[in-house]
Amino acid sequence: MKKTKKVDVKAQADPRPEQPSAPAILKRAAQHMEDRAAARDQPGGERSMARTVAAFNALTGHGLTERDGWMFMVALKAARACTTATGLSDDYEDGAAYFGLAGEAASR
Question: Which of 19, 46, 53, 100 sits between 20 and 30 A of 29, alpha carbons compared?
Fold first, then answer.
């Protein structure tokens, strides 16, 4: 007969995610952008959306702008955040970064 180990539920870590502040989420979003720029060796940061929407438009005949592409990604992250009770930190961090990139694209 195999012995089972008793688990002290009270001693386990709180399963709820941390509760980051809005500035902390924005700082993480900025750090993700810097990390991606370094990983892709682009001094101005990773900026592939213009090429992405150009390819999409060529394939579909649509006329999306770079800003539209970033806003699509904002909507994707918002939709993902709504699939669980609280969303994942990645949903909010990437969503904030995409919104910033949309603003950058809109200003050009």
Answer: 53
**Distance separating alpha carbons of residues 68 and 84, to the nearest angstrom:** 26
Q: Whose CA is closest to 17, among 25, 26, 9?
A: 25
> Which positions ≥6 away from 10 have C-beta within 8 Å?
none
Cβ atoms < 10 Å from Cβ of 46: 17
pLDDT class for 47, splitting at 50, 70, 90? confident
Q: What's the pTM? A: 0.77
Q: Contact at 8 Å (CB) between 69 and 101?
A: no
- Between helix 66-81 and helix 49-60 the angle, nearest 10°, is 100
